[in-house]
Amino acid sequence: MIMAKPKPIEEIINEIKGFDKILVAGCNGCVAVCEAGGLKEVEILASALRMYFGNQHKNMQIDEVSLTRQCDKEYLAEIKDRIGSYDAVVSIACGAGVQFMTEMYNTKRIYPGVNTCFIGVTEEKGVWTERCQACGECILARTGGICPIARCSKRILNGPCGGSSNGKCEIDKDVPCGWQLIYERLKELGELKRFEEPVSPKDWATSRDGGPRKLVKEDSQI
Amino acid sequence: MSTTTPSKLEKILAAGHFAVTSECGPPRSCDQSIVDEKARLVGPYVDVINVTDNQTAVVRMCSLASCIRIKQLGFEPVLQMTTRDRNRIGLQSDLLGAGAFGINNVLCLTGDHQRFGDHPTAANVFDLDSTQLIQTVKRMRDEGKLLGGQEMAEGVRPQLFIGAAENPFADPFEIRVLRLAKKVAAGAQFIQTQCIYNMEKFKLWMQQIVDRGLNEKVSILAGITPMKSVGMAKYMKAKVPGMDVPDEIIKRLQGVPKDKVAAEGVTMAVEQIQELKECPGVRGFHIMAIEWEVMVPEIVERAGLSPRPEVS
User: Fold this and answer.
1) Which of A87, B20, B108, B284 is positioned for an S-S bond with B221, CB 3.0–4.6 A?
2) Quick check: A210 contacting B, CB < 8 Å?
3) Lowest pLDDT segment from A190-199, B3-12, B132-141, B155-164
């Protein structure tokens, strides 16, 4: 899922301090799982903002809402009747949610309350790590189910590079070398042959390098 | 042995001589005199001079411009190219430029991550990796084709002797030879290794190369870097990615008076070369005297590698 982390509260305060009525809008999708943008985080952020502006003796109304998802119009429509009364919204959905809310309510200012980070997994309680860069052409079948684009700091397809040491990446002793993981996995699977064949340059046109992407599934269209 | 390019390095190796290469790091300014000085200092003692490409991700004068300058001074350069900073468009464009100026050697590298350099907030590229850059150069040279399929007529293709780097000391050790084989399959003709300090491990790596017959397909040039101080040895052991500096090296440097440490470092480099001349598969030496190019002539002479043979 998409991982995010809360923005420093000073940054949010700086954006909204000129207003009188703010809606903090959460998303119960991915960002709720990584404890950055769900119902609980809406309550925490709204309380912190109320406390700050209260201490500043500023009369600021801060309300809360948590939507099922912010990346679907039907859920965004749930605030259709009330959004008009706010000066601005702090959305703690991912960047896609913030933008989609902006598109739907384009007379309102919608500010991001989180930094959207990556597509990843919950490795353990409170720890999330990256697994996928959405390159648009999955090669996991050839790399033992471990992605060199997401897991190698240089996204190289013929790794590991010369900086791999004790199974760790040259950029940080806490980052596993993606190619060491791939090698070990291919060895386990008895597929080292795949490792020995040079992999040709990748077509990055399906990645962000091809420009903003769009998917159309015709049989789903009405 | 027949040669594929006009490269002097290729001719030296084809004639069966030990090759001697060195390198020159361009300045962090437009001061061309620094490249000139380094080239004039090491040029007469080596066959070719590598020019680093923003090494350790620190911005420096570009490798191609420096290579052209070295060529103009009458020495033969090796264009180092990393895939960190340019995509396939930029890389191929520079390869064409190199070909136009008669540069005949290229060393294909992935490059250090920018986190180590002076611009850690930069985006990186890595459109290709080093193996794919080798494939690209080979295709341009042998098939006269760019990656996009555009064709070049014979006579206007880059004539580059293709090199790659390999670190026998990176992990996992058992795949270093497999990875070298992959680079050879992609088209690498010479290999310059990481600085060698752990001789035992290097020889083990070399033995595997010989066992697989890879030394028949690619010329291995052993990387030699003299230690200038105890501090340098400790720094390399602790901080430089993929470097293997055994404690005995540090102990030996610590065992001589402070004013003799640098001389001891040079002696150790000379001894290493002598020892590696006997190591099956080693075809030459890549002497990287980091910011200490002044010592290259002495090392080459004391190692019995001077004067350099003439080839035509």
Assistant:
1) B284
2) no
3) A190-199
